[in-house]
Design a protein that fits this description.
The chain contains 21 helices and no strands. It has 501 residues and is mainly alpha-helical. It is found in: Membrane.
Length: 501
C-alpha cells in the first residue's frame, strides 16, 4: 500500500512536470521563434513586419474603417449612397500600387530603396490624421482628400514591406514559411484587436478622436524607416529611371496580352464589380433606423471582430480541405454560396429572424461569421490564381498590377452599390427599399457564373503559364522555388487586407 502511494505520488509529480513543461512551451515557444527570426533576418525586419502588418494595417486599418463609417454618418452627415461612393475614392492609391512598387525598386532616395519610403509613408499618415482630427469644421471634400492621402501612405508602406519580405524569402528560402506565418498572424491579430476596440473608442472619444489615435500607428511606420537595416547604394544614376520604367511597362503589357492572363484577370474584375457593395446602407440601418437593431458603437465593433474570426476560419478551411480542387469548380461553388449567404441580410432587414424567435444580436453575429468565412473562401482561389499568373522577373510588380485590377473591381462594386442605394432612395431616414437593394445585390452575385468560362480548368497545383510567358527555363527548380516563396509572402500580406478594403 505504501509502495502504491509512493508510485502515485511519483506519477502525479511526472504529470505536473509535464504540464509545466507544456505551459512553458506555449508561453516561450513564440518568443523563441521571434528571436530565431530576428537573429537570422535582423531584428529590424521582424519589427517592421509586426509594426506594419500588425499595428498599422491590422490594428490601424480596422480602427480606421469603423471611424470612417461613423465620421461620414455623424460628422459629415452624408447619405448612405454618398458615403458609399466617396469612401471608395480613398482606395484609388491601392489601384496604382504597381507605381509605388516600381518606385521603391528602381528609385532610391539618398542611396536607400526602402527606408525613405517608410519615413515618407509615416509622415503622410500622421499629417493626414492630424488634419482630420483637429479641424473642427473640415469640408467634406478636404476630409476626403486627407483620407485618400492616408490611404496612399498605407499603400506605400504596404508595398515597401512586401518588397522586403520578397527579398528575404529569396535570400533565406528555408524561412519563407516562417515569414508567411509572421505576416499572417500579425495582420490577423491586429485586425481582431482593432475591430474589438473600435466601437469602444468611437464611443469614448468619437470618430475624430480615433483618427487622432491613428497618428501613433503611422508614426511607428516612420520609426521603422529610421531603424530598418538596409545596405546603402551610392552613386545611383537617375538617368536609368526612365528606361527601367519603360522596360517594366513593356514586360507587363506583353504578359497581359496573353489570353491565359487577361481572361482570368477579366473574370476576377467582373466577379468583384458586379457583386454590388451596399454596406453603407446596411450600416446606417443597423445604427439609425427605428425599425432596425439600433446597435451601439461598442456592439458594432464587437460584431466586426467576430467577423474577423469567420475570415480566419475560411482561410483555415481552404487550406485544409479546398486547396487541391480545380479553379473553375471552386469558383462555381463559392460564388453560389456567396449569393446564398446574402440572404441572411435579407432575413434580417425583413425582420424575419424575430418571427423565428432569433434576437438581432445573435443573428447578426452568425450572419457576419458566415459572410466573412464564405467571402474568404471565394477570395482565396482568386488570390492563388493571381500568384500563378505572374511571370518570372517581374513577379512583384505584376502581382501588384493584378491586385490593382481586383481593387478596381472592389471600387466599382462600391460605386455601383452607391448608385443602387440612390436610385432606390435609401437615405439616412428612409429604409423602405433597403430589402430590395439587398435582393438585387444577391441576384447580381450570381451573374459571374455566366463568365466562368474565363477561369482555367486546371487544378491549383499544376496550372502554370506557357514557358514563353514565364520567361525562364522550367528546369531551374531552385530559382523557381525561391521566387514562389516570394509570391507566397506577397499573397500572405495581401490576403489579410482584403476585408479592410
Amino acid at each position: 500500500m505504501v509502495e502504491e502511494e509512493q508510485s502515485l505520488e511519483k506519477g502525479g509529480s511526472v504529470h505536473v512536470v509535464k504540464g509545466e513543461s507544456h505551459f512553458r512551451n506555449v508561453v516561450w515557444g513564440p518568443v523563441r521563434w521571434l528571436k530565431m527570426l530576428s537573429s537570422e533576418l535582423h531584428w529590424s525586419f521582424v519589427f517592421g513586419v509586426v509594426s506594419l502588418y500588425g499595428i498599422n494595417q491590422g490594428l490601424g486599418g480596422s480602427l480606421g474603417r469603423v471611424a470612417t463609417e461613423y465620421y461620414m454618418k455623424d460628422v459629415q452627415k452624408v447619405q448612405p449612397s454618398e458615403s458609399q461612393a466617396l469612401t471608395a475614392i480613398t482606395k484609388i492609391p491601392w489601384i496604382i500600387k504597381p507605381l509605388w512598387g516600381i518606385l521603391t525598386d528602381i528609385l532610391p532616395i539618398f542611396g536607400f530603396h526602402r527606408r525613405p519610403y517608410f519615413i515618407l509613408a509615416g509622415v503622410l499618415g500622421v499629417v493626414s490624421m492630424m488634419f482630420i482630427s483637429f479641424h473642427s469644421n473640415l469640408h467634406l471634400y478636404l476630409a476626403l482628400l486627407w483620407m485618400t492621402i492616408s490611404s496612399a501612405a498605407m499603400a506605400i508602406a504596404d508595398v515597401t514591406i512586401d518588397a522586403c519580405t520578397a527579398y528575404n524569402s529569396i535570400k533565406h528560402p528555408s524561412l519563407a514559411s516562417d515569414m508567411q506565418s509572421l505576416c499572417s498572424l500579425s495582420s490577423s491579430i491586429g485586425a481582431l484587436l482593432g475591430f474589438f476596440m473600435s466601437g469602444i473608442l468611437v464611443h469614448l472619444v468619437g470618430s475624430k478622436g480615433v483618427f487622432g489615435l491613428l497618428t501613433f500607428p503611422f508614426a511607428l511606420v516612420s520609426v521603422v524607416g529610421v531603424v530598418f537595416s538596409e545596405p546603402h547604394v551610392p552613386g545611383f544614376s537617375y538617368k536609368q529611371v526612365n528606361q527601367k520604367f519603360t522596360d517594366a511597362g513593356k514586360a507587363m503589357w506583353r504578359t497581359m496580352k496573353c489570353s491565359d492572363v487577361w481572361r482570368p484577370s477579366l473574370y476576377m474584375y467582373l466577379s468583384l464589380a458586379v457583386s454590388l457593395n451596399i454596406h453603407e446602407g446596411l450600416f446606417y440601418w443597423f445604427t439609425d433606423s427605428k425599425d432596425g437593431p439600433l446597435f451601439a458603437q461598442e456592439t458594432v465593433g464587437f460584431i466586426l471582430s467576430i467577423g474577423s474570426i469567420g475570415s480566419i476560419l475560411g482561410a483555415t478551411l481552404y487550406q485544409l480541405v479546398l486547396k487541391d480542387h480545380p479553379f473553375r469548380n471552386l469558383c462555381l461553388w463559392t460564388q453560389l454560396l456567396f449569393a446564398l449567404s446574402g440572404m441572411l441580410d435579407l432575413i434580417l432587414v425583413l425582420r424575419l429572424n424575430l418571427k423565428f424567435g432569433l434576437p438581432d444580436y445573435l443573428f447578426i453575429v452568425v450572419d457576419e461569421i458566415v459572410s466573412q468565412m464564405i467571402g474568404r473562401l471565394k477570395w482565396m482561389p482568386l488570390l492563388v490564381l493571381t500568384s500563378k499568373l505572374c511571370p518570372h522577373g517581374i513577379e512583384g510588380t505584376f502581382f501588384a498590377l493584378l491586385m490593382s485590377i481586383d481593387n478596381a473591381g472592389l471600387m466599382t462594386s462600391s460605386w455601383l452599390g452607391g448608385v443602387l442605394l440612390h436610385v432606390l432612395k435609401v437615405t439616412r431616414t428612409e429604409f423602405g427599399n433597403l430589402w430590395l437593394a439587398v435582393l438585387i445585390r444577391n441576384v447580381m452575385r450570381l451573374s459571374p457564373l455566366f463568365v466562368l468560362f474565363l477561369v482555367p480548368k486546371g487544378d491549383q497545383h499544376t496550372f502554370k503559364l506557357p514557358d514563353e510567358i514565364m520567361g525562364e527555363d522550367s528546369e531551374e527548380e531552385e530559382g523557381d522555388d525561391e521566387k514562389e516563396g516570394s509570391r507566397n509572402l506577397e499573397l500572405a500580406s495581401l490576403v489579410q487586407s482584403v476585408d479592410r478594403r
